[in-house]
Design goal:
Blueprint (H helix, E strand, L loop, with lengths): L4 E10 L2 E9 L3 E6 L5 E5 L3 E9 L2 E8 L4 E7 L4 H12 L3 E3 L11 E5 L2 E6 L2 E7 L3 E7 L2 E6 L11 E5 L10 H12 L11 E10 L2 E7 L3 E5 L4 E5 L3 E8 L5 E14 L2 E11 L3 E5 L4 H8 L6 E5 H13 L3 E2 L13 E5 L2 E7 L3 E5 L4 E4 L3 E8 L6 E8 L4 E8 L3 H10 L30 H24 L24 H9 L2 H4 L4 H9 L24 H16 L5 H14 L2 H67 L2 H6 L5 H9 L1 H16 L5 H7 L1
Parallel strand pairs: 5-8, 19-24
Antiparallel strand pairs: 1-2, 1-7, 2-3, 3-4, 5-6, 6-7, 9-10, 10-11, 12-13, 13-14, 15-16, 15-21, 16-17, 17-18, 19-20, 20-21, 22-23, 25-26, 25-31, 26-27, 27-28, 29-30, 30-31
Helix pairs in contact: 6-11, 9-14, 10-11, 10-12, 12-15
């Protein structure tokens, strides 16, 4: 006989709803994994007390009762599977799988039996229906009548809200059958009553969903959120998972509580309770219990007096009471060094955290997607810009989630993470050997949380940042400065002082044929040329001495290869962390040796800088002298041009009118427009200088040559 039996598409009845999943029977016990929530029910073989096989609406069902009174129902079996299950129960669990059919006579008069957490209404020896008492939200009594109210089921189209039982009076003195019935129900019902004092209270905590500030009162069996407008009572049995997530700014922490069923506010359902804490906020906490009770109940997980960060205290108390592991981000690290990715889901911006067994998005709306329910992922081009991309996830149920506006720099890190987790990538196509290697029946929150370990990780990051800062300071600057004034423009811009140079060289005599307005010429002349960038903003001189290294960097360069050989395959970030730890643990005497080397390097650098500054001053003085000489020449040239203009004006006025009519005349505007072009100005300068230097007898011939 096989050691295990597996069944797919089995339905578990929980609080009136049928949740599909996978069922496995083994020597150790019975395991059922919910496909929707990922929650795993594990029943040890030693705890099983009774097994019942019966016909139900979805074929045949299996009812298991445990020794502590819990009842588990699984439907969806075929009739032919009874023999196989019966033999398995006999061989491995030493139990007889009894066949009991439900009574279908339709009578409404019978006997109520209480067994564990189950109320059974029987006619004779056959049950008519059964009510799990954990579904009961309230129990009220009247004269010969008991009314049971139930929790609303959001997944069902029609919910059973109330059942009334008529209890006939009895002849026994001192015993009220109605009260006895109600007490049996209330002893096992999920009725939330704030009896006694709270174990502890956290005041004015910031809550993102539902939004507001709430006082959180911690009771032994439930959590009470007390706000200005709304109150919520959350049984610990409805808590599915706990998450502790660092914010991208490294100054805040998210504490996320996953709930099933969710809490309700009108028609709104909140499947996640998200609290936001500042890392700097500390608290001293005293539990409202004596030390013996604390030790007996929590077995060392909590103490009567505790102090520390507020988020650590809340997460520690919740972990002890709910008895659930706290999931923290895994080894993923984004482009910026954070353990999350900034993106948008639907209309809101938030943070996507890749976990060891899934993804979680906070905060509006919160989304948790397990790896075992993902069909494939897809990397898509951003719709509005090429600077970002979209990350799409499609589940096996056909639901699609699109996380958009992810920075392009995050692509490599996210792709490597998805590839390492062996998720199917749609862009690449399905490849052989990409099947997930994790256990299909394992719970999806296997990560242990250690607050001290998290704190040590944070300290390691700080040491790494310090090491990187010192290495950046010692390195040579490689980025070039952007100096638009120093670049040669291929095409002159409009209204530039050199704009006509390119046009005049290409068009030939087009300037003479076309008549240009005088105003345009004036605008071009008055336009100031672009200012060049100051000399101080130029790039770093490659001949300048390099800055000296710190003692730590000198030691790291000398020991980098040794660290790599001692830790083969170590990454760059882990190497920096390891080096920081070794440097911190080094004795003061050894550090002094490297401090002396750093001091010698600093003195050498200062000496080299003095020599360099003396040489640069002499070069700058030569440059200044050449600039002054150039300016002087420009002034002399300008004076000659002014004299030339005056000479040409006197020549034109002394000419006869007839001769002026026959000769070509150049107006002031025409001369100005010619001067604006670099090519024509040189020609005019040479001609006008010749006119100014001619004797009076040759003036007419000179003007004629013009």
């Amino acid at each position: 006989m096989a050691d295990t039996l597996e069944f797919n598409e089995i339905y578990q009845e929980v609080k009136g709803s049928m949740n599909d999943g996978r069922l496995r029977l083994s020597r150790q016990g019975v395991i059922f994994k919910n496909s929707k929530t990922g929650k795993v029910d594990n029943i040890q073989a030693s705890e099983l007390a009774e097994g019942v096989w019966r016909r139900v609406a979805l074929g045949h069902g299996l009812k298991l009762l445990t020794k502590n009174g819990h009842v588990y129902k699984y439907d969806g079996f075929r009739e032919s599977e009874f023999d196989k299950l019966s033999d398995f129960f006999k061989a491995h669990y030493r139990l007889e799988l009894a066949e009991k059919d439900l009574c279908v006579k339709g009578w409404n008069w019978g006997t109520v039996r209480f067994g564990g957490q189950l109320l059974s209404f029987d006619i004779g020896e056959q049950p008519v229906f059964e009510i799990p008492l954990s579904n009961v939200s309230q129990c009220t009594t009247g004269k010969n009548e008991v009314t049971l109210e139930f929790h609303q089921n959001d997944d069902a189209e029609v919910s059973l809200m109330e059942v009334r039982f008529y209890v006939p009076p009895t002849q026994e003195d001192g015993v009220d059958p109605v009260e006895a019935f109600a007490q049996n129900v209330l002893s096992k019902a999920d009725v939330i009553q704030a009896t006694g004092d709270a174990i502890c209270i956290f005041r004015e905590l910031q809550c993102l969903t539902p939004r507001g500030r709430y006082d959180i009162r911690i009771y032994p069996t439930f959590l009470h959120l007390h706000g200005k407008t709304f109150d919520y009572k959350i049984p610990y049995t409805t808590v599915l998972r706990l998450f502790l997530l660092p914010h991208k700014d490294q100054r805040q922490m998210f504490f996320v509580i996953s709930l099933d069923p969710p809490i309700k506010q009108g028609q709104t359902r909140y499947h996640f309770l998200i609290l936001l804490f500042s890392k700097d906020e500390d608290i001293s906490l005293t539990l409202n219990m004596n030390e013996e009770e604390v030790e007996k109940r929590f077995e060392g997980r909590l103490t009567k007096n505790m102090s520390g960060s507020l988020y650590e205290m809340v997460s520690r108390v919740m972990k002890a009471l709910v008895n659930r592991k706290i999931t923290v981000p895994g080894n993923f690290q984004g482009h910026s060094g954070a353990q999350c990715i900034t993106c948008s889901y639907k209309a809101s911006s938030g943070l996507l955290y890749p976990l060891e067994r899934g993804f979680i998005y906070v905060h509006k709306p919160p989304v948790h997607i397990r790896f075992d329910e993902i069909s494939f992922v897809n990397f898509a081009r951003g719709t509005t810009t090429t600077r970002s991309f979209d990350f799409e996830i499609e589940t096996k149920q056909g639901t699609q989630y699109t996380f958009s506006s992810i920075e392009r720099e995050e692509y490599g890190k996210l792709f490597d993470f998805v590839n390492a987790k062996k998720l199917n990538i749609k862009n690449r196509g399905l490849k052989e050997g990409m099947k997930q290697s994790y256990d299909e029946y394992a719970d999806s929150d296997e990560d242990q949380h250690d607050a001290y370990l998290e704190r040590m990780k944070e300290e390691g990051k700080i040491r790494e940042e310090n090491a990187n800062d010192s290495s950046d300071g010692s390195g040579e600057e490689t980025d070039e400065s952007f100096n638009p004034g120093e670049e040669d423009d291929d095409v002159a811009e409009e209204f530039d002082s050199n704009a006509s140079a390119s046009s005049s060289s290409g068009d030939g005599d087009s300037d003479r044929d076309e008549k240009k307005p005088a105003k345009k010429a004036k605008i071009v002349k008055d336009r100031k040329p672009r200012k060049k960038q100051p000399e101080s903003k130029k790039g770093k001189d490659p001949n300048a001495p390099k800055r000296p290294m710190s003692a730590y960097m000198l030691w790291l360069n000398a020991n980098r290869e040794k660290i790599k050989s001692d830790h083969p395959g170590i990454s760059i970030t882990d190497l920096s962390k390891k080096a920081g730890e070794l440097w911190k643990a080094m004795s003061k005497e050894k550090k002094e040796e490297w401090d002396r080397k750093a001091e010698d390097a600093r003195r050498d650098y200062e000496k080299a800088m003095k020599e360099y500054s003396v040489g640069s001053k002499s070069e700058s003085s030569k440059t200044e002298r050449s600039k002054k000489k150039k300016k002087k020449q420009e002034k002399q040239t300008k004076g000659k041009v002014e004299k030339k203009g005056a000479a040409s004006k006197s020549l034109s006025s002394s000419k006869s009118p007839a001769k002026n009519m026959s000769e070509s005349f150049k107006s002031k505007e025409f001369v100005s427009s010619d001067e604006s072009s670099s090519g024509e100005s040189k020609k005019e300068d040479s001609e006008e200088e010749g006119v100014a230097s001619l004797p009076p007898s040759s003036e007419e011939s000179a003007s004629g040559s013009d």
